[in-house]
Amino acid sequence: MKYHITLLIELKDGILDPQGRAVEGVLQGLQYPVENVRVGRVLEMELEAPSEAEARAAAHNIGRALSNPVMEVFVVEAVKELA
Amino acid sequence: MKYHITLLIELKDGILDPQGRAVEGVLQGLQYPVENVRVGRVLEMELEAPSEAEARAAAHNIGRALSNPVMEVFVVEAVKELA
Questions:
Q1: Of the N and C termini of chain A, which has fewer Cβ atoms inside 10 Å?
Q2: How does DSSP assign chain B, residue by residue?
């Protein structure tokens, strides 16, 4: 089976995010009432796995492999079976 | 009301994604059977708006402001009311 995986990798709360701060300044300059803007990475991929549970487990391992545990958190946002 | 917005900005299909290609190589090297790895940005923010519909509309405008319409697509992934 093939699965579509969406993985988010973001800075932990409390870790200074200069890119988020810059975007926040831009948006506030455009009069959007935003705060706490945080910028992270989203990874989309197709993964071959025998079952959804194994796809989800592999997605967790991939998130762990690609994120920095000191500064970042990852979230397996979605695991969808492809036709 | 305050809303938590999650916005994804990704390269359009067909636009070469060297970062995704690099991550794909790393994951395949680790024996993960992945393909079509794409790397994009995720933005999380808090937004003040009078209603969920207006928060969603503002999130769309923000996505339009922050993405490059030639190369990127944006998705308003989530709009959640904060307590």
A1: C
A2: -EEEEEEEEEEPTTS--HHHHHHHHHHHHTT--EEEEEEEEEEEEEEE-SSHHHHHHHHHHHHHHHS-TTTEEEEEEEEEE--
